[in-house]
Known about the structure:
The chain has helices spanning 18-36, 61-84, and strands at residues 2-6, 42-47, 50-55, 89-96, 100-107. Strand 2 and strand 3 form a beta hairpin. It is an alpha+beta fold.
Amino acid sequence: MRFTVRGHSGWAEYGRDIVCSAVSALAIAAANGLVQQAGVSRAVRQRHGELDCMILGSPSDAEWNRADAILETMLAGIRSIAREYPGTILVVDKNRPESGRDLQARGCNE
């Protein structure tokens, strides 16, 4: 299971883009919550304009349930922002039986 957030929304100039800031805050909070609240191990790669977070190992059912709640909350927040600022965010929800669930949110300029 993983999620990736990349690109910039283009709503405002770099450094003043509240859409990008809001999505980034949700993604970072979710990545931190996976460890602090769900107790799962995860790998995070963060570089300019991109955050990639992948759950590692074999979490217990209880850990998966907590992780799922965190990720669904992040996704609901991102979708809410996308509705409020149409044309700025693209959410791609990928379901693959062999690799779990992958989620990508991209700025429209990408």
